[in-house]
Amino acid sequence: MSKHAEDIARDRHVEYLIKTLQDPEATARVQAAKLLGELKDSRGVDGLSAALFDGDAGVRRAAAQALEKIGPPASEALLTALNNPDQDVRHAAAKALGQTGEQRMIPSLIAALRDPQESVRSQAAFALNKMGARAVEPLIAALTSPDANTRLHAARILGSVGDLRALSELQRLARDDSDNKVQEAAKLAAEKVRGK
Fold first, then answer.
1. What angle do CA 83, 148, 151 make, to 5 degrees?
2. Where exactly does CATH 1.25.10.10 map onto the chain?
């Protein structure tokens, strides 16, 4: 088969899978989402984005995972997915955004530290930790958040990253924060930073 014929066949296959995301059968929609993810074709992003709000939880999860596999072309859809009512979708979105490594994702991941579900907060924290030094300044700013979970996770991540720029703010938090858990996390983080 010629390269041109292969391209035409692939285009038709992608178009078919995108249409299948609207199939009345949830199992067909799940399979279509999974295959679009395997193909990593950015043309599937819009259909997969819509599937994040499917009535079937399996379809929503498959769509989120497919967007993760597609990577940076799906970044905007993944940012939107951080606000999805389904915690599994938010979890997958936080994971995928961390893997893109894009600096512009940091504020959204910091906002996800306030998510009501611990699994989403943990995944956002993991993603921020993975970004390392690029996330330090926004994480230092997050130490002043009115949300205790945000301060707690920011302190832990900063301790893990070990950047000296965070030391004075971590020490302040360890001494002055109104939440005992945050104080303890900041104290441990400051010790880690001093030890590096």
1. 90
2. 1-100, 104-196
